[in-house]
């Protein structure tokens, strides 16, 4: 079977649109979850630095900036975990079905 | 070979032209320290082990796929460690801790900027990169565009970034090693250059990967031990650690909040754009995605790499903050015993002094050996990326049009690695005692404004044409290099002019936007038959990018 027929079959398979759509939406959503807090943090540290003089609790010397920055790092990593669990599970299963059906 | 040499020489001339005017404003020369036997002994163990691995790898490296991508047989976890090893350079350990030591919270903001690109790389490019590419990033950039022009340009972009980054690493290596090991600067640079050549020339990607993995484990392990020793010193209390830091630092409580790094929002955004997208445009990082068998493992690699890098960055933040009180109040770590004066060994040394303070001489020796190993691993990754741009892109694809035999291509690769090694040694010596910080801005500027736009647009935008990609890339190259020259670091501090023409040190906000705009404009106005064909070819590329249909297999033989 020629490469073009396989490609045409993939394109015609509704599962292809489903997989690409789901994966793209997840990637965009997770990017926003990472980038919106990050850029908010960057703009606030530069425009409103006094916000970051607040401490985490009464009597503590640790300011809120430290745990927030750490949270951006840890949160970014957790989002990569969510992405690979979906992409390597559900989406890859769909992908395999699509390729198998196209090669039939 | 002739054309690849021309490209290489052009890259070096570009770099050398900076050497000419990088006169005044150089960082203070560091003093050579007494020879450190335990550090050298531990480093020798590392070198012998890695040379053993190189010998083993050389037996397994027969095809070009073995050489460039270790036959695609690296697992996601191994590759994740190796990517982390590539990204966590000696500058990360020394530089980030010293930023926190001197500026407190500002250092943390900087670290977050260096980290944040990783999740985005996973979401937007990792799987398409793996599905479309074979050996180099130029494979993807030129997938459906003109092989000669776009591949040459992409290879040139890779080589430029590799050259800038190599100089930074070599100069850092020389300074660090004369400081920690008591070796002469030039000797240190020659040792690093020769070991790098041996790893890359004989062991290719297999050896380079294992050097990265071992080094990443050593660095993570050393960091964790130092963290535990440090926290024990403060009775396992962050509260205690930070109150002592505030009491010891000359800026007092100000170190707990942002001070001046981010004073200008445009500058802050430009820095973060450059780091975010520059990371995605580093050729030696992109190359690592082709060492795994498929997109699934490529995703896993980024997950593990992001975890290791994020964890290590957090560790360095604690170490930097701890050094403020432990190192900053101990006269033994200051020149002439004057607390608050110049640190022995210069501003990058807080973490090394901290190691000595909490772990003694043997631990300092261990960490010094790890820092040396780190430099070695990073330069090897860079040299491999540079060599593959020369042999795979320029020689095999552009000059030989894909007719080169495996033997021929391998030969050119080896010549190219040796050439890059010699070049790195010469540039390392030429830039001795120069302030090379602007080269980091240049490397990330070029990566984000030349490599990244063509990479992302070729993967995501059907309308991209050869004309648009080429002129957009040139616009990105000229503007990023030009703006760095006109920036405060180069124009004022190095060239000695009174005021900077371009007010920001990082050019990405302008140069990246310009690159995207020019690429878009010259693509949409391109009505040539070639452009129509390139747009038609997007469909095939899109299906391959999404499903991995026809992607380069795990092994080529």
From TrEMBL, chain A:
Entry GO terms, CC: plasma membrane
Top-level taxon of origin: Bacteria
Record's keyword terms, sorted: Membrane, Transmembrane, Transmembrane helix
InterPro entries: DUF485, Inner_membrane_assoc
Transmembrane feature ranges: 26-44, 64-84
Protein name, per record: DUF485 domain-containing protein
The species this protein was found in: Zoogloea oleivorans
From TrEMBL, chain B:
UniProt-recorded Gene Ontology molecular function terms: acetate transmembrane transporter activity; symporter activity
Entry annotated with the keyword Cytoplasm: no
Top-rank taxon, per record: Bacteria
Subcellular location as annotated: Cell inner membrane
Keywords, alphabetical: Cell inner membrane, Cell membrane, Ion transport, Membrane, Signal, Sodium, Sodium transport, Symport, Transmembrane, Transmembrane helix, Transport
PROSITE patterns: NA_SOLUT_SYMP_1, NA_SOLUT_SYMP_3
GO terms (BP aspect): plasma membrane acetate transport; sodium ion transport
Main location: membrane
Classification via InterPro entries: Na/Glc_symporter_sf, Na/solute_symporter, Na/solute_symporter_CS, Sodium:Solute_Symporter
Transmembrane stretches, start-end: 38-58, 79-102, 108-126, 153-173, 185-204, 216-236, 266-290, 302-327, 362-391, 412-431, 437-461, 468-486, 506-525
Keyword Cell membrane: yes
Pfam families referenced in this protein's UniProt entry, alphabetically: SSF (PF00474)
Signal peptide positions on this chain: 1-22
Membrane topology classification: Multi-pass membrane protein
Residue runs in coiled coils: none
A cellular-component GO term for this protein: plasma membrane
Family stated for the protein in its record: Belongs to the sodium:solute symporter (SSF) (TC 2.A.21) family.
Name of the molecule in the record: Cation/acetate symporter ActP
């Amino acid at each position: 079977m020629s490469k073009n027929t396989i490609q045409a079959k993939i394109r015609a398979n509704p599962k292809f649109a489903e997989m690409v759509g789901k994966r793209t939406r997840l990637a965009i959503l997770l990017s926003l979850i990472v980038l919106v807090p990050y850029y908010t943090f960057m703009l606030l540290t530069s425009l409103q630095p006094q916000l970051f003089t607040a401490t985490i609790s009464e009597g503590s010397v640790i300011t809120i900036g430290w745990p927030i920055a750490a949270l951006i790092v840890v949160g970014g990593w957790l989002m990569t975990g969510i992405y690979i669990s979906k992409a390597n599970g559900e989406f890859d299963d769909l992908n395999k079905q699509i390729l198998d059906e196209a090669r039939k | 070979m002739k054309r690849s040499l021309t490209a290489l020489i052009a890259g070096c001339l570009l770099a050398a032209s900076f050497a000419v005017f990088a006169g005044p404003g150089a960082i203070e020369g560091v003093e050579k320290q007494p020879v450190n036997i335990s550090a050298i002994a531990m480093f020798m163990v590392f070198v012998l082990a890695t040379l053993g691995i190189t010998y083993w790898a050389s037996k397994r490296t027969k095809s070009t796929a073995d050489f460039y991508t270790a036959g695609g047989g690296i697992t996601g976890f191994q590759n994740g460690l190796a990517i982390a090893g590539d990204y966590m350079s000696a500058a990360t350990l020394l530089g980030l801790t010293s930023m926190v030591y001197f500026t407190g919270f500002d250092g943390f903001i900087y670290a977050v900027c260096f980290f944040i690109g990783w999740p985005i790389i996973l979401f937007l490019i990792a799987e398409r990169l793996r599905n479309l590419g074979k050996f180099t990033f130029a494979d993807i950039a030129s997938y459906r565009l003109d092989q000669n022009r776009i591949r040459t340009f992409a290879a040139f972009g890779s080589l430029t970034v590799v050259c800038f980054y190599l100089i930074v690493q070599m100069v850092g290596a020389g300074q660090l090693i004369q400081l920690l090991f008591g070796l002469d600067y030039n000797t240190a640079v020659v040792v690093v250059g020769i070991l790098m050549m041996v790893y890359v020339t004989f062991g290719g990607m297999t050896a380079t990967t294992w050097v990265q993995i071992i080094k990443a484990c050593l660095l993570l392990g050393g960091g964790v031990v130092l963290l535990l020793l440090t926290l024990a010193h403060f009775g396992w209390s962050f509260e205690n650690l930070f109150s002592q830091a505030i009491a010891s630092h000359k800026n007092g409580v100000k170190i707990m909040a942002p001070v001046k790094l981010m004073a200008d929002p445009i500058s802050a955004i430009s820095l973060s754009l450059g780091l975010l997208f520059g990371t995605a445009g580093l050729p030696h990082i992109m190359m690592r995605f082709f060492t795994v068998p498929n997109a699934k493992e490529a995703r896993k690699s980024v997950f593990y790499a992001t975890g290791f890098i994020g964890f290590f960055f957090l560790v360095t933040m604690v170490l930097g903050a701890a050094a403020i009180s432990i190192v900053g109040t101990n006269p033994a770590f200051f020149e002439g015993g004057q607390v608050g004066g110049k640190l022995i060994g210069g501003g990058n040394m807080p973490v090394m002094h901290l190691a000595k303070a909490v772990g003694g001489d043997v631990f300092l020796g261990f960490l010094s050996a790890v820092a040396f190993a780190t430099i070695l691993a990073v330069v090897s990754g860079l040299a491999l990326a540079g060599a593959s741009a020369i042999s795979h892109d320029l020689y095999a694809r552009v000059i030989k049009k894909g007719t080169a035999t495996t033997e021929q291509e391998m030969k050119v690769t080896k010549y190219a690695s040796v050439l890059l090694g010699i070049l790195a040694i010469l540039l390392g010596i030429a830039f001795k005692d120069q302030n090379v910080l602007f080269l980091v801005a240049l490397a990330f500027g070029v990566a984000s404004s030349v490599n990244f736009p063509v990479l992302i647009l070729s993967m995501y935008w059907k309308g991209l044409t050869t004309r648009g990609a080429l002129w957009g890339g040139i616009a990105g190259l000229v503007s990023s290099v030009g703006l760095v020259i006109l920036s405060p670091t180069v124009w004022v501090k190095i060239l000695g002019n009174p005021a900077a023409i371009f007010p920001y040190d990082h050019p990405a906000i302008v140069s990246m936007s310009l690159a995207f705009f020019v690429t878009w404009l010259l693509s949409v106005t391109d009505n040539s038959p070639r452009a129509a064909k390139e747009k038609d070819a997007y469909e095939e590329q899109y299906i391959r990018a999404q499903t991995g249909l026809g992607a380069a297999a795990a092994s080529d033989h």
